[in-house]
Amino acid sequence: MKQGLRQLTKQSFVLTPRLQNQIKLLALPGEGIRIKIKELINEFCEEEESKEFFLFRDILLVDRYKSLLKPINTEVTREYQIIEKNDLKNTLLDQLYILNLKEYEVTIGEYLIDSIDENGRLDIDIDYYDITTLILESFNLNIGKKEIEKVLREIQNLEPVGCGYRSIIESLMIQTDSLEIEEREKIKINEILKKFSSGDVDVKKLDQKQKNLLKLLRFNPGQGIGPTDKNYIRPDLVAIKNSKEWEVTLNDSFLIESLMHKVKLSLENTPPAKKKEAQSFMKGLERRQNTLLSVGKYIVSKQNRYLDGKEDLVPITLKQIASFIKVSESTVSRVVKFKYLQLPTRNIPLSDLLEKKVTGRSAESREISPNQLMKLINQIVNSEEKSNPLSDQKIKKSLKQKYEIDIARRTVSKYRQLAKILTARERL
Q1: Cβ within 8 Å of residue 359, ≥6 positions away
Q2: What pLDDT sits at residue 13?
Q3: What pLDDT is attached to residue 202?
Q4: Spatial contact of 156 and 163, defined as CB atoms under 8 Å apart
Q5: Are residues 336 and 29 in contact, defined by beta-carbon separation less than 8 angstroms?
Q6: Residues 47, 51, 53, 55: is their CA dihedral positive or negative?
Q7: What are phi and psi of 4, to 5 degrees?
């Protein structure tokens, strides 16, 4: 054995089941996470009627409803457009004003409509006492819940039908009543919806006619995204453009945090083993949420000009992201997988904002994406002398001199062909 040569002890890293589960959490899509949270709540939390549990149950119901109507073996839509909509509140107000209502009822309607979010849900914290006080001060008139509910029913039957709902099932039933079908069919659908909300519906027992009728209903009437047989994706992240920059937030982060807080409070008298397992899940979930948000913010900040419609995607690698947020590349790969980002007009897979770069021949070569490279090659070819077209070698030289892009000739040839540009000989 040569002097100085040492045999190193081989080391292996064993993943415990608990660590494996935390790693799996990173890759789970939002729907999978919600199923896990539901299991945790069912095991450790007593049933209660708090705002958090109410909203979470509604979200779970939407997940189940769209799964019920999704055809077998249907591919998940990679991107869907959010239908450009007029301001929902103004749309409802315009219709409210042409109804045959008394002046104080119009005021009630204005208050209710102002409390409806963009999906069509009535604010869960709305206080009818505020409305009765407003009417008393404005009209010297005492009203009760009955008068408010009457106006709310009018609003719920405006277009789009089903807005102003307190629960998803309420909206679906209102929409059912508006369908131009026989009364016995409406009764049948309402029975199905009631059973579905309690988890008692058997999909196999629904005939095709019933399924087709259910597909006419929308679970988010305010946005006009439907029918429900479309593969609606609940986004994991939401990006909003402020005056100067894009802001990225987790979708419904407040809800998850609040639910986890209630689970923690319920773990006090739990056996140590189960308690440790639940705490491990919550720790993994927190890591997932924080990592997802950090990754989303980084990607959107790098692609802000693309999102503004001013430039093509710029190259971003998993290595770059991992280095910036100080995690491994495999972690970034998992957290990007199956995650969706909501933009003002569409939902897209977060991975669609990742753009590979064209490999340069030197470290000094400017980073460029395939689309950007094809555009530059096209510009160079368009400015060449028609009687003396440039060869791939000369295009390569021009890219280096003008744009500091140092790539191989065969790379130029590859992307020239992708840009559907003929060879120099064929361009003569």
Answers
A1: 407, 411
A2: 46
A3: 66
A4: yes
A5: no
A6: positive
A7: 90, -10
Domain ranges of the chain: 17-27+36-45+234-353, 88-214, 357-428
List the structure tokens of 421. 């540009």
Q: Which two tokens stand for residue 377?
A: 């090659």
Q: What is the pLDDT of residue 90?
A: 86
Residue that the structure tokens 């971003």 belong to: 316
N-terminal to C-terminal alpha carbon distance within the chain:
67
The pLDDT score that the predictor gives to residue 117 is: 87
Write the pLDDT tens digit of every residue in 75-99. Answer: 555 555 554 445 788 889 989 999 9
What are the residues whose beta carbons fall under 8 Å from the beta carbon of 342, sequence distance 6 or more? 82, 235, 237, 238, 239, 251
pLDDT beneath 70, residues of the chain: 1-16, 18, 47-48, 67-86, 201-204, 223-232, 363
Rounded to the nearest 5°, which phi and psi values hold at 249? -135, 155
Torsion sign over Cα 295, 56, 36, 22: positive
Residue-wise pLDDT for 252-274, tens only, equals 877 888 888 888 888 888 888 88
CB 342 within 8 A of CB 237: yes
How far lies 145's CA from each of 149, 150, 152, 174, 247, in Å? 6, 9, 10, 19, 40
**Domain covering 357-428 in this structure, CATH number:** 1.10.10
- 3-class secondary structure per residue, 261-283: HHHHHHCCCCCHHHHHHHHHHHH
Token pair listed for 123:
């604010």
Token pair for 290: 């924080």
